[in-house]
User: Fold this.
Amino acid sequence: MKAQRFVVTGRVQGVGYRYFVLQEAQRLGLAGFARNLPDGAVEVVAEGGESALAELEARLRVGPSFARVADVAALGVEPRGDQGFHIR
Assistant:
């Protein structure tokens, strides 16, 4: 089990980005959360298998149709043992 924290910048708030992340994370069987940050970015913390996390990162770089992703910064973190994926 691995965990990663992603900070996604660009036009990612008000465009359904967190719901997009929820669907992708559930499809990949990942646990964690997505939330808006005060600076306009979206934070995603996900844990699961290495290949699923890599696929999630690739999908985060695309986003839903109305989003415009400028950057995705990734940082390895300690797994927290979350159950399911949630929007905060």
In short: Residues 72 and 86 are 19 Å apart (CA to CA). The mean pLDDT is 97. Residues 17-75 form a domain with the Alpha-Beta Plaits fold (CATH 3.30.70.100). The radius of gyration is 12 Å.
